[in-house]
User: Fold these one by one.
Assistant:
Number 1:
Amino acid sequence: MSYWFIYIPPYINKTFSRLRSPEFFLALTVLVALLSVFSLRAGFWAGIALIFIVFRLKQGCFIAVIYVAALFISSHSVFILDIDYSGGKRTLITTKGKISGLPFANATVGDLLWGSFKYDVQRTKKGVPRLSAELSGDYTLHKIFIVSSLLKARQHQSATMFNRSGGKIHITQAHIYAIRSYITGKERDEYVITGLAHLLAMSGFHVGIFTAGIFFIFFFIPRKTRIIPAIIMLPLLIPLSGFAITVVRAVFFAMAALIGWSADLKVISLRFLALLAGFILLFSPFSLFSISFLLSFFAVFGIIMLFKTKYTYIKGIVIVGVACSVFIMPIQLYFFGTA
């Protein structure tokens, strides 16, 4: 078999076939993410090479086109999640962090801001690399069907709960919409010290409740047919969470499980988790250094490794709690200084 115009001997091609596994794919995407820290351009070309190493020619061409298109779109656009007026200036809270310095007179929550961004790799106090974006030059604002409306409703409902309660409801927003701006610094520290910081975000638990709610609402149709409205509605949670990576992971995992269940297929959780993590790192390399990505995937990895279907209900709950705590403990110790 040959790739492009290069002849690959059968024994080498056989080795590649064995290496075409989700685990190998994940390992390569981690290397690409590490390379991106030193050179964004080198990381991009390494990602292209990775695609054609792991996937066959036709699959690789298709994925490469999506990869290039997705990176082009994401590198030139951000969604506006909130607007901060403190400090006497208008600062946009976006999916790429805070953007200020320009008037943004017509910008509203939910808009897609399209422009030219300058990217730079910076490091936090702990030495963790972060990709910073700075808008330079002209920009345009666009409304995206459904997504813009959901982002606007997310921000509006959070503000309404806070204002109508006289400021008493200020933590619920984090549990429902992953909005932490209403939480005081003292309360945030208390969550971190007690090791409950992960509760201040949407996660697989929310996705599970949402899916169960859909199945309950559509009780009048056959059970396996209910996956159709579930698969259609589950992606709506991604903008409702402000594109939180924990929700992205949980939504795709839930959709794969529902499709496998409806088609009587067995989903190998560990391999699918590796494949999903690999694709997220391929399209967003700096997710490797994100506390949300690490906590989310290591927690699920721990559950898959330790949980057995033969466990009783009570034992299952205990094992899930232990698995999450053990596997995310090193990450919490490093980022927060406490488990």
Note: Confidence is low (pLDDT under 50) at residues 1-8.
Number 2:
Amino acid sequence: YVVKTDSLGTMQWQRNYGGYYGDYCYSVLKTPDSGFLLGGVNSGNYWLIKIDSTGNQMWDQTFNYGQNDVCHSICQAADGSLLLAGTVETSPTDLSMWAVRLSGLQQAWVSVTPQGAPIVIPPGGGSFPFSLGLTNCGTIPCAVNVWVMVRLPNGSLYGPVLGPANLRLPTGATLSRLRTQNVPANAPAGTYTYQAFVGDYPAVKWDSSSFTFEKQGAGSWVVGGGLKGWENEGEDFDGGARSVVSLSGSGATPTMVVSPNPFNPTTTFTFTLPEAAKVTLEVFDIKGQRVWAQHAAPLQAGEQSIVFDGSSLPSGVYLYRLNAGELTASGKIVLMK
């Protein structure tokens, strides 16, 4: 049972996690994205739960070392690794202190943005372009999977139609790719949700992002018919020549870095243009409302930078979108005051 209060003790929200068998929380650690990591016990195992700033569960993980394993404390070391400490019953007569070191708290975020809206696919099928962005806002490099699922009009999930791709994001790196999703003619009519995930495929989802599109006409396609007709193509994730925004040092052109991230109150968007282009940088809150924008006259080819000042905004997660000619980049930034 978790309660979030303000500085005067007034309740802001409350949440329950777990089931019916002795689930306890003994430790709370604030994370760089303004969320929290909870440590305790679930069914006799060490238990970690990651929640966001409003208490929504993002992922959980259990560790088993003996009987009646209990995690009593969590801390994060200077190198970004996580240390868990507690007790383990190694035998009916032996209760031991037990410390566990994890490689680090994964701080990878994903954003998926349609290029033009609303998206309406005609009865004969069609396609739509979108950008998919990833950001590592942690203190260490992280290895992630990214994949995309489609939620059908009947509510079931289908896919993945993209991925899972295996990536390694350096600290502070931002990655964005332009791709195109095909929708077959026999897809049922109705409203679809196009949802991207980042985490450890398929069970652990650290973050997700989505948008909706509509398919017109009556289709006969059914789940189980394979991915035929749902082809996904576009720029590679490996930093190749077709990269829109590559990881720092891993691709030819162009590169983009947002630093610092998290930030207070300013951060700098640094990017490289292969040719002169007019640049627009927009920042949105998590509800999709634009809170800041800068339109720059045509900038010369080469490295450029734009400073974003969040002094007038509250702490939280924000989305950004950069358009430079035919190039598009998007991702998440965190303001921590």
Note: The radius of gyration is 22 Å.
Number 3:
Amino acid sequence: MTRQFFFLAGILFVYATIARATILPIAKGDGIWNVATRIASELATINLGSIFCSFPITQADIGSGGTFVITASNVAYCLDENITFTTGAAITIAGSGITLDLMGKIIDGQNNSTVGIRLGEGVQNVTIKNGTIRNIGGSYFNGVAIQDTINLMVQERNITIKDMNFSNNAQGAIDLTNANSDLRFSVDGVLIENCRAYNSGFIAFDGPGIVRGCAVDESRLDLANGGGIWAGGQRLLLARDAVIEDCIATGSSAIIQISSARNGTIRHCSVLGAAQNVTLAEHTGAAILMGPCNEGVISDCVVQGIGVDDGLAVGFTAVSARGSIIFERCHASLCVNGFTINSASGAASTGASLTFIECVAENNLSHGFDI
């Protein structure tokens, strides 16, 4: 028994030594390090509170007017301090595989500039996160916080924008809709998550993607297209998928819309006191709008107190003629019409399927359901 015990103990000792050597490789010329020393050394190289940053961007890099252009690929950049600028774009991302972490800092356009951050043609796998962009532009059509290249000729792919704040930008918070007419849509795969826009126009993209956990408050009535969250395709070309979920739009001219999408979904969204006199797609003045879409679901949404326009609406056109739309567990109150189904002039809506499940319309001025 004793001999067997020492034999087993010897095996365990050798195994422990090998295991330790695997985790704690031999240091230069010193044999195996003391365990505590090695762990302390490893932890000293890890800062769990920050990201790896290859290049910190400062005011000096931007200059008083702009622009700092990122042409490298697969590099992490971060904003090292608050920056201001007065013309053009503050930062242009022209490389792929870029992470731009604003590190809680502010990009301020001083009400004179054009774009906060611009995405170049064909960039892929880009992440922009964790900061504030404000005061971009002084008038409509001149002032977007994050925008792709105008007349885009090569699609952007896999774009992530998250944990961002936007305030007082003249035209839009996020605008990824500028594809040339030869392209089907601007971006193939976008995630916009946990962003907040105050008097900054719209969060919008053309192409398949997701907007999740965002809030838009737009109270300016002089904008040509109002504000809110818009997703889908363009020019009656269907994007593959578009999802808007867990979002809220408030103010006098904000809506939530998916148009020109195959498999569009709007869920767990609220529009409060908004959508007044906003005209988009095939319907005028709806707080939550889907159209034209082929196969769409609007579920668990609330529209309340918009006063002069409709609550939840679908616009059918020839593109969506054989599609189906499902309203599920939605509520509309204090609108003109709670739910409205509209066919564009001359559209062949025959064959479209429409389903309502556990929906409520109450205290609306004209109709609860106008089909």
Note: Residues 257 and 289 are 5 Å apart (CA to CA).
